[in-house]
Design brief:
Elements: H1 2-18, H2 32-45, E1 50-55, E2 61-63, E3 66-67, H3 74-80, E4 88-97, E5 103-110, H4 115-121, H5 126-134, E6 139-141, E7 157-159, H6 177-188, H7 195-201, E8 207-208, H8 211-221, H9 225-248, H10 255-268, E9 273-274, E10 279-282, E11 304-309, E12 311-313, E13 316-317, E14 320-325, H11 332-350, H12 358-375, E15 415-418, E16 421-424, E17 437-440, E18 443-447, E19 452-454, H13 463-469
Parallel strand pairs: 1-7, 5-6, 7-8
Antiparallel strand pairs: 1-4, 2-3, 4-5, 9-12, 10-11, 11-14, 12-13, 15-18, 16-17, 18-19
Helix pairs in contact: 1-4, 2-3, 9-10, 11-12
Length: 485
């Protein structure tokens, strides 16, 4: 009797967790048709008689029994829409025949429904949910992958991304990601040597660990209309956050408080996350390109603050940077550096169009920055080697803040950043009046048929626009919390 009651309770819990009213979820996620079309686009690019294999991202441990919030592998999400761990996807160039005579050209293995696990960590789709919700008809529980007996030796190429051997093994789960990878290795006779030798061995066997990244970069480089809608939303949210911070910032705030205002605006507009760790660096902290500590307790009236943040909306991320004066007004030196960076950015933007390369855009900005730094006496000549501008000016964005780089030149419907910068740290070999000035201006540009569209135009870029907006009142002006001692 106890067993019957327990079984009934588990079943009720199982189905109650599965039922989720549609009004509880946003309605603008990518749909089945998008992912299906992307799988077909991949299939068309695969070499003859081949199969592409994709694994979900691993669960990463934060500390003790707490994990980081799970984030799906972008390629896996792009092709399926599946957001859960412990899964493997196979896409075949040609039709395969199952034991029951059915033909298929794709198959996915996902984590099964589990009432007790779902009570703790959230709903799972399971294989039936994947079929219904994501439209992958050949969907099975990951426990079935071990007995999946396709002969990988018959393929001319088995394409996958090589393993970093950094996946934890859950000894209580025989179908976790670690187990799925080990089972796959056995099925394909994966060489038991280091990664470099595996790549060399792949030329002897049919294992190909190089070509899939190139194919996926080509696919993901040109955005589809559904993707552009989500990127536009992510960029619009990020631009709105920059505007609100410009109105709200005051001397004495902490870098972390300023970060919090940005990310509150992201959440207010239903962005699920940040696309990358937020960078909020005041004064000399802005000279650290990927400064993420954001610990400075008091930003000073005399400082610039560099704010590089991007909202992630339904998987797609923006990447917008603005540098503003904490006081609300640029000093003469800050203004000269800012205007130089802005000039470099605008000249690069003028060149944005199909057929150019990001390297050519970077060269434009570097030429202008070097000329300007020489004129200001910060470097001795335009040809002097220096670290005041140590990075390129462009990268692709999408499901990754640094999306895979497509081969060749820019094409219509690619989305890139244009982000020149100048960083003059304390004790630099120049006049002391320039020390601690760090400026980066970063915008997101959609390459169009004949030029570009500035997606992040809502966030002010010019000095006059920034100083004018910083005079406006903020909804947070009267928001004060009691002191905690």
């Amino acid at each position: 009797m106890k067993k019957t009651v327990g079984t009934l309770f588990s079943a009720l819990l199982f189905f109650s967790l599965y039922a989720q009213p549609s009004e509880d979820l946003p309605g603008d996620f990518l749909g089945q048709s998008f992912h299906k079309e992307r799988r077909q686009a991949l299939r068309e690019k695969l070499p003859p008689n081949s199969v592409a294999v994709f694994f979900a991202n691993p669960i990463r441990n934060r500390s003790n029994d707490v994990d980081f919030v799970y984030h799906q592998d972008p390629n896996f999400y792009y092709l399926t829409g599946y957001k859960e761990p412990d899964a493997v996807l196979l896409i075949f160039k040609d039709k395969q025949t199952a034991n029951n005579g059915n033909q298929y050209d794709e198959i996915i293995f996902v984590q099964p429904r589990n009432a007790q696990a779902e009570m703790w960590t959230g709903r799972r789709l399971g294989n039936l949910g994947v079929k219904e919700t994501l439209g992958l008809n050949e969907a099975f529980n990951n426990t079935d992958f071990k007995k999946y007996n396709v002969d990988f030796s018959k393929f001319q190429a088995v394409l996958f991304t090589d393993f970093n051997n950094d996946v934890r093994d859950n000894p209580l789960d025989s179908a976790d990601l670690y187990s799925l990878i080990e089972q796959f290795k056995q099925k394909v006779n994966y060489p038991s040597v280091g990664t470099i030798n595996v790549s060399r061995e792949a030329r002897i066997n049919n294992l190909n660990t190089r070509e899939l990244a190139v194919i996926m970069g080509t696919l993901r480089g040109k955005k589809q209309p559904e993707e552009l809608a989500l990127i536009r939303k992510a960029v619009a949210i990020s631009g709105m956050a920059q505007r609100e911070v410009m109105k709200a910032i005051k001397p004495g705030m902490s870098e972390r408080e300023i970060q919090g205002i940005h990310e509150y605006v992201f959440k207010k507009y239903e962005a699920e996350d940040v696309g990358y760790p937020s960078i909020v660096g005041a004064g000399h902290n802005g000279c650290i390109l990927h400064y993420i500590e954001n610990y400075k307790p008091n930003v000073r009236n005399t400082e610039l603050i560099l704010m590089d943040l991007g909202a992630e909306y339904h998987g797609y991320t923006a990447d917008v940077t603005r540098t503003i004066p904490v006081s609300g007004k640029f000093s003469p030196e800050q203004k000269m550096i800012y205007e130089l960076v802005l000039k470099a950015q605008e000249e690069a933007m003028k060149a944005c169009k199909p057929g150019v390369t990001t390297q050519e855009l970077s060269a434009i900005t570097r030429r202008i920055v070097n000329k300007g730094l020489a004129e200001l006496g910060i470097i001795k000549s335009e040809n002097e080697q220096h670290l005041y501008y140590p990075h390129g000016c462009c990268h692709h964005i999408g499901l990754d803040v640094h999306d895979p780089v497509p081969q060749g030149r820019l094409e219509e419907n690619m989305v890139i950043t244009v982000e020149p910068g100048i960083y003059i740290p304390e004790n630099a070999k120049c006049d002391k009046r320039w020390w601690g000035i760090a400026v980066r201006i970063e915008d997101d540009c959609l390459i169009t048929k004949e030029g570009y569209e500035l997606l992040s135009s809502s966030a002010p870029r010019t000095i006059d626009e920034i100083e004018a907006l910083m005079k406006e009142p903020s909804p947070l002006d009267d928001f004060e919390l009691p002191e905690i001692k």
